[in-house]
């Protein structure tokens, strides 16, 4: 993985120029997360041999929430670990090209949440989800729980759509790609900002079109940045769900030119994102919300605004998209076939 383009992009884009802060307890968080992932059976053997083991999810959580309570940051890191584990499962050769198989995996998980316990003999992915859900949802309202589950279902739909594209070898168009990418990139993770911060958003800000625009623009900057980092792996695996690959096919350009085009789109969107966030803050202030509701909205807006740079910083230190030690990598970032055959989450 080559992150030099991303770091250069961040340095020359005003909205991305300030490096993200880091939670002071990040090292302890990492030790606890590693023990948890191993104890739950999500990471097996030497962690350096798998994309999940190399991900360092605690560092992304610690950058997103540098001032939150450590146990809440750890909870988010656990959700990230589970999400990447789900992604690796859905990217297995026996699943990735079958919408039916993808839906079966996701339906089992959704049923486990709704009945409140894992099925007998459940795999770690299912039992861990039930545990995380119980630890997260207890302090949240019915409306929040319904919203989270709706986004989990959106994720299932997005992953199923990806499976159809993979099976048919069809390339999404540049117009289709952003929404498809967002749905398959864990949209429920954005709902988790609230329990981590110890707040819950009232309905009125969530109903604003400007709020949805901010969420979508944030997700686009993050996922497109991720596509630059993961391009080499996904190109080797023949996966079409990468912005670089989609743009190269649509415009008939080589990968390096396509990377530059994607980087330019990220820069423009990041600048727009900052303007949108400031406009949204003003709109929220005029809603006449109670002080604690207005503060909750502004806290979440702040995390959304800082998330793209936090993600870029994490990409530069995570091994999720890098080949395991001993694998070869070409000059353009293409990794050799000694990779474990799993594409990564976004």
From TrEMBL:
UniProt record similarity statement: Belongs to the terpene synthase family.
Biological source species: Actinomadura vinacea
Protein keywords: Lyase, Magnesium, Metal-binding
Enzyme type, top EC level: lyase
Named cofactor requirement(s): Mg(2+)
Classification via Pfam families: Terpene_syn_C_2 (PF19086)
PANTHER family cross-referenced by the UniProt entry: BETA-PINACENE SYNTHASE-RELATED, TERPENE SYNTHASE
Domain of life: Bacteria
EC number: 4.2.3.-
Keyword Metal-binding assigned: yes
SUPFAM superfamilies assigned to the protein according to its UniProt record, in alphabetical order: Terpenoid synthases
Protein's UniProt name: Terpene synthase
Alphabetical list of InterPro entries matching this protein: Isoprenoid_synthase_dom_sf, Terpene_cyclase-like_2
Keyword Lipid metabolism: no
């Amino acid at each position: 993985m080559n992150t030099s383009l991303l770091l250069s992009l961040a340095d020359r884009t005003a909205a991305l120029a300030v490096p993200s802060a880091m939670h002071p307890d990040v090292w302890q968080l990492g030790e606890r997360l590693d023990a948890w992932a191993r104890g739950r059976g999500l990471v097996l053997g030497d962690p350096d041999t798998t994309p999940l083991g190399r991900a360092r999810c605690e560092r992304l959580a610690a950058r997103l929430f540098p001032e939150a309570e450590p146990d809440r940051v750890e909870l988010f890191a656990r959700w990230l670990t589970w999400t990447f584990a789900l992604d690796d499962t859905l990217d297995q050769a026996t699943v990735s090209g079958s919408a039916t198989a993808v839906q079966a995996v996701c339906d089992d998980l959704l049923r486990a949440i709704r009945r409140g316990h894992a099925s007998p003999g459940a795999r770690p992915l299912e039992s861990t989800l039930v545990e995380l859900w119980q630890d997260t949802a207890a302090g949240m309202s019915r409306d929040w729980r319904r919203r989270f589950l709706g986004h989990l279902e959106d994720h299932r739909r997005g992953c199923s759509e990806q499976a159809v594209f993979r099976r048919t070898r069809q390339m999404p168009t540049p117009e289709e790609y952003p929404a498809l990418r967002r749905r398959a990139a864990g949209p429920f993770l954005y709902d988790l900002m609230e329990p981590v911060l110890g707040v819950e958003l009232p309905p009125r800000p969530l109903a604003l079109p400007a709020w949805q625009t901010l969420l979508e623009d944030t997700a686009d900057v993050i996922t497109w940045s991720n596509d630059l980092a993961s391009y080499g792996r996904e190109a080797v695996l023949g996966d079409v769900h990468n912005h670089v690959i989609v743009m190269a096919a649509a415009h008939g350009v080589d990968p390096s030119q396509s990377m530059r085009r994607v980087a330019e789109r990220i820069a423009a969107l990041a600048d727009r994102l900052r303007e949108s966030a400031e406009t949204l803050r003003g709109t929220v202030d005029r809603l006449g919300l109670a002080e604690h509701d207005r503060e909750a909205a502004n806290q979440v807006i702040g995390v959304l605004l800082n998330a793209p740079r936090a993600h870029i910083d994490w990409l530069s230190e995570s091994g999720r998209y890098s080949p395991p030690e001993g694998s070869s990598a070409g000059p353009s970032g293409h990794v050799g076939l000694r990779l474990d055959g799993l594409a990564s989450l976004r």
